[in-house]
Amino acid sequence: MSKNALGLGNGKSGQVLENKKIHLANVWNSWNRFTDTIHQVLKSECRNKQDDLTGYCSYVSHLLEFVSIKLLVISALPLLMYLTIFKSYLFLKETLNLPEEPHTILPIIEYSMFQCLPHQILSRFSNIPFDVLAGVPYMLHFALPVLFIAYNVIRRRRGGVPLIYQYLWCVGWVNIIAVLIQFLFPTAPPWFNDSAVYDETTGQVISSMPNEAAFQRIDAMLGIPWFKNLYGKSPLKFGSFPSLHVAWPTVIFLHKPWFSTKVGLLHVLWITWAALYSSHHYLIDALGGISVVVAVKLGMNHVWEPFSNHKNARSETKQTPSNSREFTRLNSVSKQV
User: Fold this and answer.
1) What pLDDT is attached to residue 172?
2) Per-residue pLDDT reduced to its tens digit, 153-194
3) pLDDT: is 307 or 335 the higher one?
4) Distance from chain centroid for Cα 13
């Protein structure tokens, strides 16, 4: 091979090597620019989140200035009393010799009123979409107080604080009255009355549908005994009347429901349908729960509730210039969040 050929080959190899070095340098520079950009974006995002968190904490601290710990504790007392009474059911049953056998008179009363049993009509149309639609409000039931309080704090700000006091007070007394009725007058739900098989000799129950009733289909679909564990752990098996599942959304409906009155009413109708469709309650149970709520609310409005002076004081302070400036400052903080 000639020297010219070797020189030409070495020149091409050197050129290729040089091109590779330039390409790698460009790739490295591009990668550095990319990582720098990501770093700047993340740094900016973290700074924004930190500012948002600071603003939110400032908003919460200003909001807490309008919360009276004394009134908050007083408003929660009935609810705490209810929880204590409910958790002590087994002890009270043994001590006070409370009735244990359920009354089965509800379907007789309901049929005499409506000439039918509405839950049996609704349960005929059982299917998976309806099962899920009925299960959702039952799953959210125990979170309702927290959700409604959070809604008032976030959306209504200072104006929602007195409403929280009244809501807690009302729902607490509704629960106390309802659970006392259930203790003294235990009533069997539809799933029990419709499925119970009695011994002809002793009159004892041989078998009945599980406590979760129609929601056992959701447990089977999910593969998780969620409803079974929920209802199996309840110490009070026969507490069909009045329905607290319907009562709780009704309390919200009577205390400026979330979003709108129509949404609040839809919530009450939704849980009523779910209670009947799942065979957990009779229609008379739902009406009983609504009646207890209305009675407690009327008592609060026309007899006594400990927050009337607080409401009057709030309405008076709204007219003062200093309070107006404070309200404007609170709104400006919340808008920044």
Assistant:
1) 95
2) 777 665 667 888 899 999 999 999 999 999 999 999 998 888
3) 307
4) 73
Torsion of CA 39, 45, 49, 52, to 10 degrees: 140
Q: CA-CA distance, 204 to 211, in Å (whole number)? A: 18
Whether the Cβ atoms of residue 216 and residue 135 lie closer than 8 Å to each other: no
Distance, CA of 118 to CA of 95 (rounded, Å)? 38
**Could you give the percent of the chain with pLDDT greater than 90?**
36
Burial of 160 (0-12, 13-18, 19+ CB in 10 A): buried
| Kind plus residue range of the DSSP H or E element containing 197 | strand 197-198
Range name among 65-69, 255-259, 313-317 with the lowest pLDDT average: 313-317
Helices of type H across the chain: 3-64, 69-87, 89-96, 106-114, 118-123, 128-139, 144-151, 161-184, 190-195, 216-222, 226-232, 244-253, 261-277, 283-302, 308-317, 321-336
> 68: helix, coil or strand?
coil
Identify the sign of the CA torsion 148, 149, 150, 152. Answer: positive
Closest CA to 170 of 246, 98, 260, 248: 248
* 128-137 residue pLDDT tens: 999 999 999 9
Residue 291's contacts (CB-CB under 8 Å, 6 or more residues apart) are 242
Contacts of 259 (CB under 8 A, 6+ apart): none
Structure tokens at 222: 């999910």
What residues have CB less than 8 Å from 200, skipping those under 6 apart? none
Q: Answer whether 217's CB lies under 8 Å from 131's CB.
A: yes
| Entry pTM | 0.73
Confidence category of residue 223, pLDDT binned at 50, 70, 90: confident
Q: Pick the residue with more confidence: 96 or 312?
A: 96
Q: Which helix (H) or strand (E) holds 205?
A: strand 205-207
**Sequence-separated (6 or more) residues with CB below 8 Å from residue 196:** 188, 205, 207, 208
Task: Output phi, psi for 224, to 5 deg.
Answer: -130, 125
Q: Name 116's Cβ contacts closer than 8 Å, sequence gap at least 6.
A: none
